[in-house]
């Protein structure tokens, strides 16, 4: 379970309770801690990347787009801005979905255009046919049987000729790595990440540590861990091929497959 615990301000006495362990187990309610900080710390980079890598593909969609693991909707928004076909956003974590749904509150065109599904992809009932399926920052987070099910869902949900796109994963941060920092008013928010093997398993436990600091010092430290199942690109290609999809047009930063 992730730990949520205010850290001692610079001048405060040491906290009475022990500091959280460096690698807390994943929270039974995933993204409970992370959702608060996700857009603030990741939106500008993820949005630029989605505009660069996905907007043109979304513009070519003629039937519909399905995004699996939409999170807070940073990528969904870029997809929806780039097309007039329906965009189906699948997001099972309530904390992330809260931000995702709130994103459309101020825009009735977007509300007509985007549909949000609260179940995990393995429980998703058939949606209208789609010709683009997008999985960004998702695949490592799925246990191998769920990941293989994702490929067979892609085969079932995509129209013939439709594309499945999966982003390429980056390097594993073996030491704490600062990812992003943003100032709001007089308060600085930052996130670092570190990954470590989970004993006796192929999983890696990624721990995100959020620090909130004012001029007086750290006012809050929170962390959340996620267990990921690293998978090589070759393995993804082989699994997707055995689900019945072919290699698609090469695209920088993405693995692309065609139904
Ligand atoms: C790291 S976030 C990425 C969110 C978004 N794609 C982005 O790049 O900003 C991964 C998301 O996948 C969702 N997810 C995890 N397992 C899933 C599943 N089985 N089906 C659908 N979504 C899932 C999580 O709830 C989470 O919001």
Q: How would you summarize what this structure contains?
A:
The protein is an alpha/beta fold and 259 residues long. It has a domain at 35-169 and 231-258: Rossmann fold (3-Layer(aba) Sandwich), CATH 3.40.50.
Description:
This protein has 259 residues and is an alpha/beta fold. The protein has a domain at 35-169 and 231-258: Rossmann fold. Helices cover 29% and strands 31% of the residues. It has 7 helices and 12 strands. Strands 4-3-2-5-6-12-11 form a 7-stranded mixed sheet, with helices on both faces. The protein has a 5-stranded antiparallel sheet with strand order 1-10-9-8-7, with helices on one face. Helix 6 links the parallel strand 5 (130-135) and strand 6. Helix 1 (34-53) runs parallel beside helix 3 (74-81). The longest helix is centred in the N-terminal third of the chain and has 20 residues, at 34-53. The model is unreliable at 1-21 (pLDDT under 50). Bound molecules: S-adenosylmethionine (SAM).
List the helices and strands and how they pair.
Blueprint: E1 4-5, H1 34-53, H2 55-60, E2 65-68, H3 74-81, E3 87-90, H4 94-103, H5 108-113, E4 114-117, E5 130-135, H6 144-157, E6 158-167, E7 177-184, E8 187-197, E9 204-214, E10 217-228, H7 233-242, E11 246-247, E12 254-258
Helix pairs in contact: 1-3
Bound molecules: S-adenosylmethionine (SAM).
Figure out the total of helices. Answer: 7
Low-confidence stretches: 1-21
Instruction: Tell me the fraction of residues in β-strands, as a range.
Output: 25-35%
Approximate helicity band? 25-40%
Radius of gyration: 19 Å
| Ions and ligands | S-adenosylmethionine
N-to-C series of helices and strands:
EHHEHEHHEEHEEEEEHEE
The CATH topology annotation of one domain reads as Rossmann fold
Task: Outline the biggest β-sheet.
Answer: 7 strands, mixed
- Number of DSSP strands? 12
């Amino acid at each position: 379970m992730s730990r949520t615990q205010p850290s001692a301000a610079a001048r405060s006495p040491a906290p009475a309770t022990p500091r959280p362990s460096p690698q807390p187990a994943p929270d039974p309610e995933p993204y409970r801690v992370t959702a608060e900080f996700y857009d603030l710390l990741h939106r500008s980079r993820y949005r630029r990347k989605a505009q660069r890598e996905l907007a043109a593909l979304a513009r070519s969609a003629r039937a519909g787009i399905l995004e699996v693991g939409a999170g807070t909707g940073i990528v969904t928004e870029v997809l929806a801005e780039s097309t007039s076909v329906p965009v189906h956003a699948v997001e099972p974590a309530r904390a992330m979905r809260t931000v995702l749904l709130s994103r459309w509150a101020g825009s009735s065109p977007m509300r007509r255009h985007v549909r949000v599904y609260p179940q995990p992809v393995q429980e998703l009932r058939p949606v209208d046919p789609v010709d683009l399926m997008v999985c960004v920052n998702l695949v490592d987070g799925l246990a191998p049987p769920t990941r293989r099910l994702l490929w067979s869902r892609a085969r079932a949900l995509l129209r013939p000729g439709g594309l499945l796109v999966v982003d390429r994963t980056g390097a594993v941060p073996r030491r704490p790595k600062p990812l992003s920092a943003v100032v709001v008013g007089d308060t600085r928010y930052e996130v670092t990440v570190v990954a470590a093997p989970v004993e006796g398993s192929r999983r890696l436990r990624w721990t995100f540590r959020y620090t909130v600091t004012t001029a007086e010092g750290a006012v809050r430290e929170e962390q959340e861990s996620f267990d990921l199942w690293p998978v090589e690109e070759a393995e993804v290609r082989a699994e997707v091929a055995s689900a019945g999809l072919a290699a698609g047009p090469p695209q920088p930063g993405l693995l692309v497959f065609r139904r």
